[in-house]
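Appendix B. Extra example for self-study. Work through it before the problem class; the solution is given directly after the inputs so you can check yourself.
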Amino acid sequence: MPGFSLTPPADYLLPRDYCSYGYFLLFPNHWSVREQALTRPLRLSGGVVGIRVTQPRRAGAPLKIETSRTLARDEREEARTQITRMLRLDEDDRSIAEFHRLDGRWKKTGRGRVSRSPTLFEDVVKTVTSCNVTWPGTVQMNRRLCEVLGAPVPDKPDAARTFPDAARLARTRPQTLRARCRVGYRDQRLVELARLFRTPASRGGLNVARLEDPATPDDEVHEMLIDLPGVGPYAAANIMQLLGRYARLPLDTESVRHGRSLLGYKGSSAQVMKKVHSHYAPFGPHAFRSYWLEMWEFYESKHGPAWTWERDSTGKMFTAAQLKKA
DNA sequence: GGTAGACCTGGACGC
DNA sequence: GCGTCCAGGTCTACC
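Solution. Structure tokens for the complete assembly:
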């Protein structure tokens, strides 16, 4: 199998750092528990390619990237960029060290990276499909978006199809999204979202470069995100953490549950949310990482390490009823 | 600025 | 197996 290798940061451990956020369980991602390998298709300028990522069980060991076809040099660079984004290999070591200084609980395990998607568009759509729906619904929507609108990996009919890009989603009829992808009332919003990604900023579209520029102030990024269809305060804060901006907390009903059961807060949902917010405020620019890793540790205490979770049977672990029981 | 109610789907539960 | 209830964040209308 053709491929290439990628040198990660010295502390990088694929199972721990990739299986660190729920999106690792969403199509078209697939984590093989048995092989401890990530597979998924990527969309490159020369067409779709299937990738398989593995790492010897040693922090910092080179990542082995196997590809379903031989890539030209520029395509390999594209794949490298997307994989780097997805695995957060570009997360500044100093940022992780600073986080560990602020919240010493994670230094020993080395946790700090939270995985994401190869593109911002996929992250935004995944966030919108996680709003106002239980986790199995999110799993279903993402699976169907790929099955209905994704492109196949050439010569690999059994492989997952790509996540639809903005161009594909922008020309899909809302009725198709609703009927075949089961996205419900999100149909029109998703199409509008895709159109905003497709339209140049000079013609009223989304300024993606400005959003992804680390020099853009948090407040400006938040303002741009909150204007997007389907994006409210929770989704905006979540997209911000996916952009590497960890100061804001995407608080939802799960946060309230966490605040009550683990942090011992009492009162109305709004009061508990306020208290949860204050609880993580001392972690400043790394608040989200403290919050999220605490939540993740709780899930793992109930279900074992995330790298042992099977994608196709995990949905039911995170229904509201199961979490209440936990 | 704050809030009530609609939006849509799938899981849970009772029969 | 069927019907009903409920969970979930965003958006709009209204005060």
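Self-check: The first strand of chain A starts at residue 3 and ends at 6. If your reasoning did not lead you there, revisit section 3.
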